[in-house]
Amino acid sequence: MKVNVEVNCTPEEARAFFGLPDLGPLQQRVMGEIEERLRNSLNSMNPETIFKTWLPASMQGVDQMQQMQQAFWSQLANIAASGDTKKE
Q1: Which among 53, 55, 35 is positioned nearest to 44, based on CA atoms?
Q2: Does residue 69 carry a pLDDT above 70?
């Protein structure tokens, strides 16, 4: 024996029939908050901010390396200049 039952109702009616809660308003609030946070995050993601966020330590290292290199060459130039004055 084969029995077919066809039910014609909306999802809201089926949810109410089975006693399930309506999560639509909760979902709308959560999606609104997620959208707001996403927009705030996207506004702060300009290229300069991203660069400073991702590479702050390495850029400081590059600056320090350049400063050390300049100090080295300055000292070397001072030594060379003082050596030239001794020869004269």
Answers
A1: 53
A2: yes
29-68 as b/e: b if 16+ CB within 10 A: eeeeeeeeeeeeeeeeeeeeeeeeeeeeeeeeeeeeeeee
Q: Is 60 exceeded by the pLDDT of residue 88? A: no
Answer whether 22's CB lies under 8 Å from 15's CB.
yes
Contact 23, 16 (CB under 8 A): no
- What does the alpha-carbon distance between residue 69 and residue 40 come to, in Å, rounded to a whole number? 41
Structure tokens, 84: 């030239």
State the first-to-last Cα distance of the chain, in angstroms, to the nearest integer: 120
Q: Give the sign of the dihedral formed by CA 35, CA 40, CA 41, CA 45.
A: positive
Mean pLDDT value of segment 24-51: 85
**Mean pLDDT over all residues of the chain?**
82
